[in-house]
UniProtKB/TrEMBL annotation:
Species classification: Eukaryota, Viridiplantae, Streptophyta, Embryophyta, Tracheophyta
UniProt protein name: 4-coumarate--CoA ligase
Residue ranges annotated for the AMP-dependent synthetase/ligase domain, each copy included: 20-404
GO molecular function: (E)-caffeate-CoA ligase activity
Stated family: Belongs to the ATP-dependent AMP-binding enzyme family.
Top-level division of the source organism's lineage: Eukaryota
Domain AMP-binding enzyme C-terminal: 455-532
Pfam families attached to this UniProt entry: AMP-binding (PF00501), AMP-binding_C (PF13193)
Pathway connected to this protein: Phytoalexin biosynthesis; 3,4',5-trihydroxystilbene biosynthesis; 3,4',5-trihydroxystilbene from trans-4-coumarate: step 1/2
InterPro entries: AMP-bd_C, AMP-bd_C_sf, AMP-binding_CS, AMP-dep_synth/lig_dom, ANL_N_sf
NCBIfam families in the record: PRK08162.1
GO biological process assignments: phenylpropanoid metabolic process
Length: 554
């Protein structure tokens, strides 16, 4: 067989852009996208994407240049996930919740040539442009208008000759031959990490890695043909965990929502007969705690990830009709790579036990080569006892190419031993399922014992009055550190429970050393731009409370 080798006919570059082309043929007359009163078919979506890709190419932007998008889940945002790479450029989604300084840092770092921006975000974009250095070539701005726009902010620049998204749709060539990658390792997307503790890092993915993770995510979630997908997950979050391209592969109907509102979400689920949706555990929590929530008309598959969902939240949302699947991933792998593959025998367990099992991250997906929990110093696998903690590592074809212009950080996490070190702390259970215990920086070391903040938070979430919970380290003169709990309460809870009551609640459910020694009540926990709790801010607050004196020894 030595004479056999790759040939042009069997070594075409892998790219998920072909999914849209196929959808236009197979599902051409089927609804692709719904937003307020707007509705498109897959044939129309394909044509619109070709037109926009053609218009981008006509601007004289060189192949491989970065094109940025600052927009919520509106039709243009979905189309640009295809149109930008179809023009030969690299797609850079920017989180709409970032401040102008951070947006400016991103635009400068990636040398963005074009910025598509949503009308309501005009001030953010203009301020970020104003912060660029005088000698930096500013990107071309293209306005994404909204037919239901009741904000006149964008009208003030309408006379300046600024290009508009719909203008590019009209201008573009519907017969445009989209730019296929010359090889599958060409960069396709650039997403920046949230940068909560340092400058954001630019994660670059190839056409190949996005193709693999998209296929993998569909198989892992058992997504059927023509589902109805509700976009509660922001598309700027790692390209919607790659489901932007995945929904084209299965000819789905995409229901777009500009912003999350529990009432609107429940209405959209019943009105459009939604079958699938996803988001961080905070979305599950908001759906579970919506005061007027009633069981939905038919089951909705909900993929959650980003942090371990508390079992109490899973239990509540499933009682409303959601079927929760828990996945684990990070920007560096572009989607879900570890999931809690469900075993039929678990269906016989009590609801609380099923919810606890679903809170585990699980096993590697089919598209990932391997996942493990290792000692970060020796690189050896930890004991499979569900107790010994180590760092979660992964390897496979869906991993990033690396961090843009940052070889040091790339080498730090993608080591020569063949693993990507995630920075997440976990354990491996005897059955081969792994479970996240914390981010490495969030582990609390109290009296020499490692305390998982996630585990303490899970217990706090089981308290019926708790809406949100976050646990961080507070300095202690005797123990070194002790757990400090920050809580927000559910709507209508009055009076506020005393601190000792919450501590006693934990004491009956946790080992002694894991029980919070301090409880702080807040109206709402501070969040990052990606909706995660700002634990670094809470740690600062805990430090300002001062070290606990020796009188606190227990």
């Amino acid at each position: 067989m030595d004479q056999l080798k790759p040939r042009p006919s069997n070594s075409c570059p892998l790219t998920p852009l072909t999914f849209l082309e196929r959808a236009a043929v197979v599902h051409g007359d089927c609804t692709s996208l719904v937003y307020n009163q707007i509705s498109y078919t897959w044939s129309q979506t394909y044509t619109r994407c070709l037109r926009v890709a053609s218009a981008i190419a006509s601007l004289g932007i060189e192949r491989g240049a970065v094109v940025s998008v600052v927009a919520p889940n509106v039709p243009a945002m979905y189309e640009l996930q295809f149109a930008v790479p179809m023009s030969g450029c690299v797609l850079n989604n920017i989180n709409t919740r970032l401040d102008a300084r951070t947006v400016s840092v991103i635009l400068r770092h990636c040398e963005s040539r074009v910025v598509f921006f949503y009308s309501h975000l005009l001030s953010l974009v203009l301020e970020s442009i104003s912060l660029l250095p005088p000698n930096f070539r500013p990107p071309l701005l293209i306005l994404i208008e909204d037919d239901d726009d009741d904000d006149d902010e964008a009208d003030s620049i309408s006379l300046s000759g600024i290009l508009t998204y719909e203008g590019m749709v009209q201008k573009g060539n519907p017969e445009f031959t989209w730019v296929s990658p010359e090889n599958e390792w060409e960069p396709m997307t650039l997403n920046y990490t949230s940068g909560t503790t340092s400058s954001p890092k630019g994660v670059v993915h190839s056409h190949r890695s996005i193709f693999i993770i998209t296929f993998d995510s569909l198989i892992n979630w058992s997504v059927p043909k023509q589902p109805v997908y509700l976009w509660t997950l922001p598309m700027f979050h790692s390209n919607g965990w790659s489901y932007t391209w995945g929904m084209a592969a299965v000819g789905a109907t995409n229901i777009c929502l500009r912003k999350f509102d529990a009432r609107v979400v429940y209405d959209a689920i019943n009105r459009h007969k939604v079958t699938h949706m996803g988001g961080a555990p905070v979305i599950l929590n908001m759906l579970a705690n919506y005061p007027r929530a009633t069981p939905i008309n038919s089951p909705v598959q909900f993929m959650t990830g980003g942090a371990p969902p508390p079992a109490a939240v899973v239990l509540r949302t499933e009682s409303l009709g959601f079927v929760v699947s828990h996945g684990y991933g990070l920007t560096e792998v572009a989607g879900v790579v570890v999931s809690c593959a469900w075993k039929s025998k678990w269906n016989r367990f009590p609801a609380a036990e099923r919810a606890r099992l679903k809170a585990r991250q699980g096993v590697r997906t089919l598209g990932l080569t391997a996942a493990d929990v290792v000692d970060p110093k020796s690189g050896k696998s930890v004991k499979r006892d569900g107790l010994t903690m180590g760092e979660i590592v992964v390897r496979g074809g869906c991993l990033m190419l690396g961090y843009l212009k940052n070889p040091t950080e790339t080498s730090k996490c993608m080591r020569n031993d063949g693993w990507l070190y995630t920075g997440d702390v976990g354990v491996m259970h005897p059955d081969g399922y792994l479970e996240i215990k914390d981010r490495s920086k969030d582990i609390i070391i109290s009296g020499g014992e490692n305390v998982s903040s996630v585990e303490v938070e899970s217990v706090l979430y089981s308290n019926p009055v708790v809406n949100e919970a976050a646990v961080v380290a507070r300095p202690d003169d005797y123990w070194g550190e002790t757990p400090c709990a920050f809580l927000s309460l559910k709507e209508g809870v009055s009076p506020k429970p005393p601190e000792y009551e919450m501590i006693e609640f934990c004491r009956t459910r946790l080992p002694h050393y894991m029980v919070p020694k301090t409880v702080v009540f807040m109206a709402e926990l501070p969040k990052t731009s990606t909706g995660k709790v700002k634990k670094f801010a809470l740690r600062d607050m805990a430090c300002k409370l001062g070290s606990m004196a020796s009188a606190s020894r227990m």
